[in-house]
Amino acid sequence: MVNKDSNSPVVFYINGEKHTVDGNSSISPNTALVDYIRDVADLKGTKVMCREGGCGACTVTAKVVDPHSGSIIHKSVNSCGYCTPGMVMNMYGLLGSKKEIAMEDIEKNLDGNICRCTGYRPILDAFKSFAHDASNDLQQKCADIEDCATCPMKKGNGVSCSQQVRTVEEKSIKFHSGQEWKTPMTLKSALIAANECNTRGVAFRIVAGNTSTGIFKNQPPTSVFIDVTGIPELKKTNVDEHGIFLGGGTSISDMIRIVREASSTPGLEYGKKVATHLERVANVSVRNNGTVGGNLMIKHAHNDFPSDVFVILETLGASIQIASLKSGHIETSSVSLPEFLRTRMDGKLIKCISVPTRLGYVYRSFKITRRYQNAHAYVNAGFLFKIQKKGESFIVAEKPRIVYGGVSGDFIHATLAEQYLEDKDLSDENTLRNALEALEKQVNPQSGALESSPKYRIHLAKALLYKTILEIIGKKTNDKLQSGSSDLDRILTHGTQTYDAGNAEASLFKSVPKYEAKIQASGEAEFTGDIPVQRNELYGAFVLSTVANGDISNIDASEALKLEGVERFISASDIPGVNDVMKYNSFRGVVQEPVFAAKKVSTHGQAIGLVLASSNELARSAANLVKVTYENVTPPIVKIEHAIAKAKETGTYARQTIGVYKTTPLDEIKVAHTVKGTCDFGSQYHFYMETQSVVCHPREDGLDIYCCTQWMEHVQHTVGMILNIPSNSVNVQVRRLGGGFGGKGTRTTFVAAAAAVATWVSRRPCRIVLDLETNMSMIGKRAPYHIPYEVGFDDQGRIGSLKADLICDTGCSSNEASIFLAMLHMQNCYKAVGWEVATHFVFTNTPSNTTVRSPGSVQSVAAIEWMMDHIANYLKKDPLEIRMINLLNNGDALVFGHGAPATYNRENMIPKIVEQMKSTADYEARNEYIKSFNKQNRWKKRGLSVVPVRYSIEYFTTSYPVSIAIYHVDGHVSVSHGGTEMGQGINTKVIQAVAHGLQIPMDRIKVKPSNSFVGANAFATAASIASELVVYCATKACEEIRENLLPILEKLENPTWEKLIEQAHAAKVNLTASYLPTGKDDLKGYDVWVVCANEVEIDVLTGEYKILRTDLYEDVGRSLSPGIDMGQIEGGYIFGQGYWTTEKIIHDENTGKLLTNGTWDYKPPECKDIPQDFRVTLISNQRNNAEGIFGSKATGEPSTDAAFGVVLAMRNAIASARADAGNTDWFQMSGPVTPEDIAMLCLTDTAHLTV
């Protein structure tokens, strides 16, 4: 048994350095590994973001001794450059766990790592270069990702960390908090420890992987943790003629390996399908640590948890051995899985699970999810049939097992269908009909705001049984129906990148490695949260509103302030200046947005105050103890349609506008037809991997603020006004951002202002790093839109009239309404003949919506593209034909421009790009193939779409100063600029430009952090223009330096760079230069042209889909850095794809609370969601862009708009399914489009399910 009086330490090694934890340590049993690594070991390379096991940022590789076999195991565990260290550690773990890896292993292994910037393709290509089946092209293209010369653990022999591994020992540690951690080494010791806790009435928790805390966060306080990972009895596994034996402590990853290997054994053939299903449970890092017994215990505690492990085991008729202690002896009992759910487990453990052989059975299981990887199920199901073939009949020889999850907490077996199907012929139409009828009687799904609709889940229950029956009867059914039996197989992704490689000798106009690539891969790139902690530093945690519409009656922080280490509570009364974050803005915010709400609260999650404490964990705990009482609470408005109705009812709708914009009709277009409809597009969270983070230090002249902002000036001047101090007392510095996407423009200032107030009143350093839930709840997102339209056109499809109303949901304020940008891009690349476009914005009780990649344009481009397809559907024409006949030409009217009336005076590049697309993307042939495919398949459908984009770039600001300094001692160069590096490669392009301008190697140049001195008055790094303008300013500064050096150069004969600089310094030549454009710089805007062809395939029965191929062509002018631009284009496209498919924002309509506030319910795309075949072509066209910097064009946002083509391709596939169902009417689709939407829009009725 565990010696409860002992206090022996836990010893482990991190990067070869010994670490010891005992009862005197400052940490607690609740300390996460990532926090220990970052805060105690002080290794900031491991990042932190979701704390749910859902993003992969904190992935590390662990080497542990298996207690049963004694072997050493490598596994990645959950502990952009922000996402890069987690990606690298995941790959490192895979390389350590297998002698030989395949490309498929890599794609599967990255199922828990999210990257918001790149679109995954370049990451996958880099990692695939390690695979034994990698192509020569991949191996040549990708350098060794571990070749990080600066990695501090890199040894001379190439070994990167210590091989020292310690076995687990039996011990007990009592912490200063009174909590205890016990590590029993035998099953009996564990049971004794659990029973002692029961006897004493002490709350205890049995832990192995402890992965459930990522899902169920609000667990009751625990006094004793009993760690069972070192118990050999729980790790035993065996495979024999009787079946598969799994110890309760077997990891899910080990279970996958065991059942796959067992599938060659007669009666265990189901193992291959089980393994495939289990590979979609959570992600690799969670599966490496989560155990089979632990997963079943989650299901035991939360019956509505859609456990795939439970469904699979119950389908196969597995039994569970439960161990308990009686009179000092271990007693075991065998129960079925349903009996297990009814068994009290206090003081008991799952010892093992026995899965029987199933010789002669057909096994099938399913998991239907919003996102293919790392997502819980809408519905999961398992089917086990024993079939006796009699002639042409398929007789069910015994009662089948039909098991469902995700329907309701108490529904497991479809007993009515099971009873009915025994002895029935599955190929008989009546059998199917009666079985589906029996199923529908029993399936009664629970409703919930985060659940798919009961109607959809009932449909899935029937559809999955139907798919299983189709598989069993095989070719007995007709060819067209057979497509219903298979899943949508996802093959390995691959991509093609086509661009002008540039001159190998030049610094500019060619691909170069990203400036920060090596330090990002090694984890040495410093982000705001990585800045070393100062002595006496305080941590801040926000107190957020729990109502969305009411008044604050009282704030009581007394309970929080009683906790040792809690220093202060900050509220609106502590602000010495203006309590308004948007008082200073480029467009002067008209609605107050307070740092802390003083009286009125307008959103659930609005900041009310800030708790300051000696640790982050303590500050968060204390914030939960602050009691806020409210009065005059009224129901919130969280949906745009309700906001519109209220605005119209109260009479404010008419004045909530930026105007109505019209163009003149043309007599030559005779409107003969009209279509009308509505576009409804939802919201989107930025999902930057680095949450909002600020570190604030008091200084003799004011404050130093280190923050992850895209807009230093906004932080600087807003903090000055809030503290009532001059701007020159506020020093802002930004090294880099872990993603921004518009969400760190003005929104970071909320956090910076709170930290500044805390530092100002406490005179101590303060740090605020938001947890993901707070970040998502507090910060605004992409604005939803509601766009009713009516379009008139002639027989050819030429638009002669168009009426639309762009209605934007701005959240609780209109300070950053994207309606202007929506209007700017509404026309896209088309003529505007007889247009009348109204604009409106409405308010909801949600955080003030802000800019998100391609703000406004994503929605308005989607609206006009939807109308084009609507016209094509009406006229029964190819949608591309309708687009081409309506294209904008030089001299045509612009409905919205810089000056009125405006006419277009540029060349439309779309016709040329479309012709290129047709010839290189096999458009015509693929269109014909899809028609044939859809005729031959009832239950799988394909769709193809083409979307053109004209993205207007205007230099509405040029305020991005650049300073360059050359050091005379060695001739090395430093650069600082007013932009912000956030993954878009601005620093890389600047170095290329400076190297080009000074004609020196790139490795002589370094970029220093941006700050509010060198970058004084700089505008936000946004709208895709900052990189270009910083390059322009850097080039101009280089020209000044070259002019300064010219007299010296003329006196020397072919000097080295060092000699030239040495002589120039001696001659008192100025070796520094700064530049900021003025009115004399004739910088003009231009258009970026994109054409994107998307092909998708859908499963009509389930609504699942995959993107088969994307061909994206973007006119980049003359790319400054093609590799950087390629990453921006691919990343922008996947960002848009996520908006239209997997990412859905849901608020509680009664409280206003954001429900999709973490990785469990909010799903950005992962690597298996990207197009299987992703082809991107950069069209070099310098002649077309004489206005751009060096002939280049912006690339960050146009491709995001083009991603709407995925929806249109889905629409075409759905239309084919609807036609088979007898309906050819036009139908509306709202974004995002989920599998539920697809399945329901296909109009599949039970009567359509035939054999």
Overall pLDDT level: 93
Determine the fraction of residues in helical runs and give it as a percent range. Answer: 25-40%
- Write out the strand line-up for the largest beta sheet, numbering strands in chain order: 21-23-19-30-27-28-29-40
- The outline comes out as globular
Task: Characterize the largest beta sheet: strand count, sense, and whether it forms a barrel.
Answer: 8 strands, mixed
Please tally the helical runs, counting DSSP H or I stretches of 4 or more residues. Answer: 34
Over the alpha carbons, how many angstroms does the gyration radius reach?
31 Å
Which segments are poorly predicted (pLDDT under 50) over 5 or more consecutive residues? 1-5, 144-159
Strand percent estimate: 15-25%
Derived structural class: alpha+beta
Kindly, what is the distance between the CA atoms of the first and last residues, rounded to a whole number of angstroms? 61 Å
Cofactor: Mo-molybdopterin; FAD
Organism: Orchesella dallaii
Domain FAD-binding PCMH-type: 174-360
Protein name: FAD-binding PCMH-type domain-containing protein
